Amino acid sequence: MGSRKFAQMPSGAHEMALAVEILLPVNALTQTQTSLTLLIERAAAGDTAAFEQLMIHSQQRVMAMTWRMLGNEADARDASQEVFLRVYKYLRRFRQDQDFFAWLYTITVNVCRDLGKKRQHHSDRFISLTGGTDEGASSVPSVQEGPEEALLHTQRRELILRAMATLPDKERASIVLRDVEGLATDEVARIMKSSSTTVRSQISSARKKIKIYCEQYLRRKERGPSQ
């Protein structure tokens, strides 16, 4: 997700997005809707090359989403592979009046839910930023940051990702779609097959739990291991 979306986010979302941002290549953000529509049409008609281009255009978004949902590279890669198998299977059902990425996120959420049911232990695993889809992108400091600031920024993002891993699946999916991907609440509700009121409640609950988790972690750290 690019930084251009941050200014449009609600209070609390800006900080969350900065904490878990995974950069996408510029061409993935600037490709026109017209060319995307043509790719979808050709891929749905059986053009293998077009489907491969559609995958290239979408794979980092999917991988980033599955990583945040499942918390580790192995499960994220398995889920991403399953997402594109389903995209290939159901692409002919896609309507051109739909938002492609909203449709893609719906499939991704469903795949992550299915995989999560099979691997109940995934929420207890440690989430590391060092093995992301764009190696090194999450750990590269900005030009304004010195070494100490960059380290603190990385540690803070890692702590928030740990906190996110403890959330129930629906809360994690809602906050990732809203605060990280920057989708509107109504769009998140459609993807989650829920109401906007429920999604708002899930996001509010998730933010509170993340805040509490981080505060408790920092208090434990201040007390030290012997206390």
Quaternary state reads single chain
Shape: elongated
Mean pLDDT across all amino acids: 74
Helix content: 55-70%
**What's the total helix number?**
10
Which H/E pattern describes the elements?
A: HHHHHHHHHH
Let me know the largest β-sheet.
none
The CATH class assignment of the domain at 10-166 is Mainly Alpha
What is the CATH architecture descriptor of the domain at 10-166?
Orthogonal Bundle
Beta strand %: under 5%
- The total strand number stands at 0
**CATH homologous superfamily heading of the domain at 10-166:** RNA polymerase sigma factor, region 2, helix turn helix motif
Span from first to last CA? 41 Å
What is the CATH topology assignment of the domain at 10-166? Rna Polymerase Sigma Factor, Chain: A
**Low-confidence sequence ranges:** 1-31, 121-144
What structural category arises from helix and sheet content? mainly alpha
User: Rg, please?
Assistant: 18 Å
Give a verbal description of the structure.
With 227 residues, the chain is mainly alpha-helical. The chain has a domain at 10-166: RNA polymerase sigma factor, region 2, helix turn helix motif (Rna Polymerase Sigma Factor, Chain: A), CATH 1.10.1740. Helix content is 67%, strand content 0%. It contains 10 helices and no strands. It is elongated, with a radius of gyration of 18 Å. Mean pLDDT is 74; it is low at 1-31 and 121-144.
